[in-house]
Amino acid sequence: MKCDNVLKFFEAINQIPRGSGNEKGVSDYIVSFAKERNLWVHQDSANNVIIKKGATKGYENAPTVVIQGHMDMVCVKNPDVVHDFLKDPIKMIYEGDYLRADGTTLGADDGIAVAMGMALLDSDDIPHPALEVVFTTDEEVGMLGASSLDMTLLEGRILLNVDSEEEGIFTVGCAGGRKTNSVVPVEYVEPKNQEFAKITISGLKGGHSGIDIVRYRANANKLMARTLESLVENCNIEVAEISGGSKDNAIPSISEAIVSCSSIENLDVQCKLLQAEFLNEYYNIDDNITITVEKTENTEVFSDESTTRVLTVMNNIPDGIQFMNLELDMPHTSNNLGVVSTDENGVSMVCAIRSDIPSKKIELYSKIESLTKLANGNTTFRGDYPAWEMKQDSPLRNLCERVYTEQYGKAPVVETVHAGLECGLFAEKVPDFDMVSFGPNLLDIHSPSERAEIPSVERTWEFLLNVLAEIRE
What we know:
By secondary structure, the chain is α+β, with helices and mostly antiparallel strands. It folds into 2 domains: 4-175 and 387-470, 3-Layer(aba) Sandwich (Aminopeptidase); 178-385, Alpha-Beta Plaits, CATH 3.30.70. It has helices at 4-13, 24-36, 108-122, 144-148, 220-235, 264-281, 304-316, 358-374, 395-408, 423-429, 454-470, and strands spanning 40-43, 49-53, 65-70, 92-95, 98-101, 131-136, 158-161, 169-174, 176-184, 188-189, 195-202, 207-208, 238-244, 250-251, 255-261, 290-295, 301-302, 320-325, 330-343, 346-355, 378-385, 413-417, 434-437, 442-443, 451-453. Strands 1-2-6-3-7-23 form a 6-stranded mixed beta sheet, covered by helices on one side. It has a 5-stranded antiparallel beta sheet with strand order 18-19-20-9-21. Strand 1 (40-43) and strand 2 form a beta hairpin. Helix 1 packs across helix 3. The longest helix is centred in the middle third of the chain and has 18 residues, at 264-281.
C-alpha cells in the first residue's frame, strides 16, 4: 500500500485519546517523535506543535512550505457503545476499501493530516523544500489552538492545509463562525403527575454542522422541542430535564427528556404519532427517526412558566440554513443547535453559527441573544473565528490545479466551503499566506459512521508529494 507509513502513524495517534481539550498526550507523543529524529520542535502552552525539517538535496533554494492540520477529534459514539473517550483508544476496523471505527467517530478528521505530516517528517527519501509542520489543538471547539499560535515562528508563506473531506475539491475560502451558549433559568417544583418517563429521540443521521447542513437532516434537539411542546398541550406533561447532542459543530442525532405524565401508555401513543409525522417530513432524508418512551424515577420538574420559556426558546432558536448564496448555490449563513443540557442553573443551549459575511454572523447572534433575553435568560459567545477570503491571485492554487490535472487526468473543483477552517486565522494573522486546503474522501465525519476511503488516502498522499516535488524556487 502506497500510504502504509501514513496509516501506521494514524493508527499510532488513535491509540492516544485526543478529543478536543484532551490533546496533551498526543501533543507530547508528537514532540517525542520529533526529538527522536533530531528535528527542531516547539510546543506551546496550548499544546500546539511546530516541527521544522530542512530541505532535501536540490531544494535548498525553494521557499519553505507549511503543512498544517489539527490534532483533536470530535468524540461521538452510538448510544449502545461502551467507550470512554478520555482513556480508551479508537478501535479501528479495515473493511474493504474503507477504514472505520467500532461505533465511534474515527478521528480521520483531522488525524489523517497529522499522520501525513508525521510520515513526511519521518521520511529520508521524499524530495521536498524546507518544511514547517504545524499541528494545532482544539480546532473542533472554536479553533482555540490556532488562535493562540505564535505565527512569528513560521518563515513559510505557502500553506497546505489537509483538513478537507472530499478528494478532488480544493478549498480556497471558508466561513467564519461563533459558538454561543444560551441559558434559560428554570424554577423547580414538586410534580403534579404521578408517573415519570424518559423520552428518547434517536436514529438520526447527524453529521457535520457545516458540510452537511445543506442536506437538511433532522436536528434531534429541535424535534425534541416540538415533541415536548405537543405533549404539554395534549398530555399535560411536566418537563424535568432535557439533554441532547454532544458537540456544537455536530448535528445532534439523539435527544432525551425526563417528563412526568398521568399515563405512560397515552404518552407512548402520542409519541408514536409524532414519530410518524417526523418520518413523513424527513422522508428520504432521515428515514430512521425513532421516539421511545420508558418508565423512569420520580424527580422535581420545571414550573409551568419555566417550561414555557425553555420550549419557546428551543423551538424558535434559528437552526439550519438562514441565508443562501444563490450565485454559488451554497449557504452564506447557518446555525446549529448542537447541545442542550440541564442543571441547577437552568437549560443550556449551545449553538454553532457559521457565515462568510461578518455582519450576518453578528445579526444571527443578536437574534439568539434577543430571544433568550425575552425568556429571562442570557447568551454568551466564545471561539469567534474569521472567514477566509479567496485570493484572486494564488500561485499555489495554480500549481495545485496543474499537479492535480496531471495526476488525475481531470481538473479539480475549486470552491469556498460553509465550514470553519484554521486557514481563516492564519490569513488574519499573516495576510500574505498563500493557502489551499485539500484532503481525501472522509464520509460522515463527526458521526459514529465516519470512515476514510483508503485508496483516496493513497492518491491524496501521492498528490501532496507531487506538489512538494514541484516547489523548487
